[in-house]
Structure prediction request, 253 residues.
Amino acid sequence: MRFLSLILFCFAATPAAAELVHRETLGGLRGASLAYDAEVCGVWVATEGREVILIGTTGRAIMRFDSGMRSVRSLTVEPEGLLLADGWGTFRRVDRDGRPREEDFSLSATLVYTEGLHRDADGSFLVVEDDPSRLMRVAPDGAVLMELWGDGFEPPMVEPQGVERDPFSGNILVVDDNEGLNALFELAPDGEVLTVTPLSEWGFDAEGVALQPETGTLFIGFDGGQAVAIFEWRPSGMSIAEPLDRGPDCAFM
Prediction:
């Protein structure tokens, strides 16, 4: 009986598998960085050029603007607009029409090759870099609150390109490109690897990731083939005590 109880305990403690169900793929759109914006019910897309594009959750192009930067390698949504990064240490805040809200700045002296960027609800930022491979949480004043090395993960995450927080589960989502596993890493808030989902069935060279938490719709941008794939996403488990209300579906956009 004691042996059976131990087996049941181990089974219950094992996280459920994450679920990723492909819905459709949007061609001709290089998703180098993606960010879902509940304010406009759309996904902002950076293509590593000067232009930033807003698409609806079904893929329809809504608007675009010239950032004025030589390139936009990563972006995230803030209450007043967007935070853009050129991947060389320069950051710029713009409104949702693309107009600068302040002078360009450096978010932190330690941030240069910023491949992925996500603003958390508390105002801190999740950041991934691929040279070297690391995942960080950075305070609004630039202080590094957490620094994890992807090479030390099991399995290793050697080329992280995009990062997102699932506010429903509390877990962190990172895409690793073709120089790594071309996979979606699901991490606990402390960086523990929960699940790794291969992505090569749907595209190559994964670079951007964004989640519409209200519906569990996940967007992954691929450099290979220049496409954005849309999935239904279910996390492997919860890292927060109280799940958020998913809210209404705005997929009509």
